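User: Can you help me understand a structure? I only have the sequence.
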Amino acid sequence: MITTLLQDLQKVSYPTIGHFLEDGFVDPAIQSLLENVKVAGPAVTVRIADHDAIAMNRALLALRPGDVLVVDMLGDHRHAPVGAVTAAAAIAQGAAAVVVDGVATDVLELRQAGLPVFARGTTCLTTKRLHGTGSAVDVPVHCGGVEVNPGDLVLGDDNGVIVLPPEAARGVLDKALASDEAEPDILARLASGHPLESILAL
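Assistant: Let's start by predicting it. Here is the structure, written out as tokens:
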């Protein structure tokens, strides 16, 4: 059921969802480090405290094919939990993408690997091999101002990231598909010189 929903969501232009919903839109400062990406997958979450790299390793082990790893750095926008080795491990697990409310590193290697990584930017400062007590995997987290629960659906493209519970995604799907289907005709009418008042909602 979730697989079919995800397949249908990938047919939608994600900005179209913004016509119908107000919640679930991650801070636009979190952007893809790759170009021409479009992903949809269930969230696996990790909360990382005190720049603890071991927590990220535990989260990688929890990934299944198609998952999107969502990383809450608890406000730490200096230490990168994602780099070349992390991306390679995520790819080996079949991950669809990584979304980090923070920064990433090894940007050239990330782009070569082809794993979509969404972050606030890049840095040379990384997490460390610590065993902190405040980190956790598969718990509710916050990412870019949005609460993310394990199993929420994460949609990401070059415009940004949306996180929706499955029921909210189902509720908006048909409206978004219908809007996308109508858009080419609207653009064609605009290009052909039809009066704006006959096209735009007033």
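Now, to help you interpret it: The mean pLDDT is 95. The first strand starts at residue 31 and ends at 32. Let me know which part you'd like to focus on.
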